[in-house]
Design brief:
The radius of gyration is 25 Å and the shape is elongated. A hairpin with a 2-residue loop joins β1 (52-58) and β2. The chain has a 5-stranded mixed sheet, with helices on both faces. It is an alpha+beta fold and 218 residues long. It contains 8 helices and 5 strands.
Length: 218
């Protein structure tokens, strides 16, 4: 049996570490790497595991929260900042119900850590409009019955907002493509696409709202 090497990991320490790792249900290599992490990552900032103060720029206003680094942006918005517009449906980054804008681009808030979104402009459905003064997109969604259960609606509105910011005059095919990352289980896609087209400056159809107004005016 080889003797323990001075200054290294001794056989006795190795066996002790093995027993501890087995009791904790972890691998031996993971235990050794964990102990060495502070040395090998010297100079690199490590956050957590405890909660940390974080500052966000949401809908043009600074917001603060104390969160663990593992908290997603969606959970931060809903559970800590009282912004419940983005919906937690699949929680797997597939349905788009939690879509918000980060740096002006659509993201699934359930797939981004809150700590990564600090200091970057975030826009949620609450920042578009209120019941007393709806954003044109929101008004168009109401006008065209582009929602049923409502769980997917905020995500679709935010995805449409990003699309129109980038392309103010999309064709129907471009609207279809621009909203392809969002899923509606109720199947209101036709109404959603009409609503987005109406919210453009030109649109590809006569807006029903204007038609009703003209009819009312005689």
């Amino acid at each position: 049996m080889a003797k323990d090497k001075p200054g290294g990991l001794s056989r006795r320490d190795f066996l002790r570490g093995s027993a501890a790792a087995g009791a904790l249900g972890t691998g031996i290599l993971g235990t050794v790497e964990l102990e060495a992490a502070p040395k090998t990552q010297a100079g690199v900032g490590i956050a957590g595991p405890g909660a940390l103060p974080m500052t966000f720029q949401i809908n043009g206003e600074p917001r603060q929260a104390t969160l663990e680094p593992r908290v997603t942006l969606l959970d931060a918005l809903r559970d800590h900042l009282d912004l419940t517009g983005a919906k937690k449906v699949c929680d797997r980054g597939t349905c788009g119900s939690c879509t918000v804008l980060l740096d002006g681009k659509t993201i699934y808030a359930c797939s981004v850590l809150a700590i990564e979104a600090q200091g970057r402009p975030i826009q949620t459905i609450e920042g578009l409009g209120r019941a007393a003064k709806l954003h044109p997109l929101q008004a168009a969604f109401v006008e065209h019955d582009a929602q049923q259960c409502g769980f997917c609606t905020p995500g679709f509105v935010m995805a449409a907002k990003a699309l129109l910011d980038q392309n103010p005059h999309p064709s129907l095919d471009e609207v279809h493509q621009g909203l392809s990352g969002n899923f509606c289980r109720c199947g209101t896609y036709a109404g959603i696409r009409k609503a987005v087209l109406e919210a453009t400056d030109t649109g590809e159809e006569e807006p029903r709202r204007r038609r009703k107004k003209d009819e009312a005016d005689g």
